[in-house]
Design goal:
- Helix 2 (about 45-55) runs antiparallel to helix 3 (about 80-90).
- The protein is elongated, with a radius of gyration of 21 Å.
- It has about 110 residues and is mainly α.
- It contains 4 helices and no strands.
- Bound molecules: calcium ion (2 copies).
- One calcium ion binds near residues 38, 42, 45, 48 and 49.
Amino acid sequence: MKLSARLTAAAAALIIAVSATIASSAADAPEETGIRHDVNMDGSFNIKDSTDLQLFLAGYEVKVNRSQLDANYDSLINIKDSTRMQKLLADLAEDPQPTEIGKEEEDIGDWF
Ligand SMILES: [Ca+2]
Ligand SMILES: [Ca+2]
């Protein structure tokens, strides 16, 4: 096989591999469930979401919906978000109305 034929075959193999990777990434992309704090995208909000957030923060490979991690709406992702989720689940806190999000600084004590 000539060098140019080998290069063409190698380029074709690379294109196929990259295409497969892109297709796989698209399939793995999180889908919005429309449920607040549904971190693991299973269609419900429960203690597994808080646990998956903790695993994510600890560096474990877990699939998370990054748009649902900030449970206290402070634009940071940390253990406070997991704690907030647990309090929401235990009815020790209430989620703000969408119009209240971003105004939590003066009421943060009520929201934690
Ligand atoms: Ca969930
Ligand atoms: Ca947060």
